[in-house]
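ok so i was messing around last nite and threw this chain in just to see what happens. nothing serious, just curious
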Amino acid sequence: MAFQAPRVTGHKILDFLFDVTGSGQQVVIAAVPDETIRVMSYSLIVDGATTVTWKDGETAITGAMPFAINGGISVPFSPVGWFETSVGAALTMTLGTTTVTVSGHGIYIRYV
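result:
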């Protein structure tokens, strides 16, 4: 997916928190009609071995990232963002087949 030119100026930077338990697809940021979600930074930690794939609704926008027990990642702020959803889509993550808890936070912008 190619990014549009960054349009951070004039957009409020928002934060998100998540604490999901399960496997399969999990909603991290709910869809907003007519808006795109662009993730500017995030951190997460898992309590069990799993994979995490960030998705634009149902479509993968990252590869499956494997994590060991108590593994995690912290991705610093990028002024152009790391990934984004399509217009009107939720930001979701798909976890591996074993039930785990994934907790984290990040910042994002929404734009039309």
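not much to say yet. The chain has one domain: 14-111.
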